[in-house]
Specification:
With 273 residues, this protein is mostly helical. 67% of the residues lie in helices and 3% in strands.
Amino acid sequence: MLGDSFNQFMVESYLVSSSICGGLTALRKCSPHDKGSFYSSFFQLSVGMERLFKIVFILNHMIENDLEKPDFKTLKKFSHNIYELHTHCSTYGGKLLPNFDWKLNWQQDLILTMLSDFADTSRYYNLDKIVKGKKQSIDPLSLWNEIINSCFRKHISDKRKEKLEYDLNIWAEKNKAFGYTWNKGLDGYILSQIDEYILTWKVRNVSPYIVMEIIDMLQPYYHLVSTLKDCVDEIELEKGIKDPLVPYIHEILVFLLAPKKLALSRKRWNLRY
């Protein structure tokens, strides 16, 4: 009979998968005219990543402590610091799966730093501003704007940039779009009509590459979770434990195996790819 440990890990694993998949789907739907749409992605991605890394931490703790789970105080020391969790958990990966690349590239570092800051300090940024709270944090939209621009420079080819400029010039001439709008960009500054056109283009065309960077960043954790599960199974076998304490969590994370081409094209994410 499967016990509480197995079932609790199962529920937590589905929470991780549904949160990350929901965040990736929301990311593909983001619009600069609906800034709240970005927050939907931030909330789900930050929750999913934090819980994924905490699962990894717990599994490793069980392996190192004769299947004993860490207490709440041990887990709480990370708070919502996703970046620290990744740094900690990637050391397990470096030891168990050294052939995988556990080092973040520049864009992934920006993404994880932003989501970690969002989870830890800035998820209530707007409410703090509304009520003039004392808590100081950075506008998450401004940080996301930096991520978009960084991925734009990295992933958008010179040919596509030239076409964007060409299309923009034709559109601006046709619509006499040389004034300013009432809208603000993700960086908080008033947008000219040309700025708004460019920002809309970037959000629509760069977001798929941000999704790809996230999948590439998390993909090694699919293999790490699988390896940790095998290690737990070995200890259970040695101790004569018949009912597994941990399910095959990696089977619930199989969407992380999506190749780059699929990660770029996929708009709706679910547990399978």
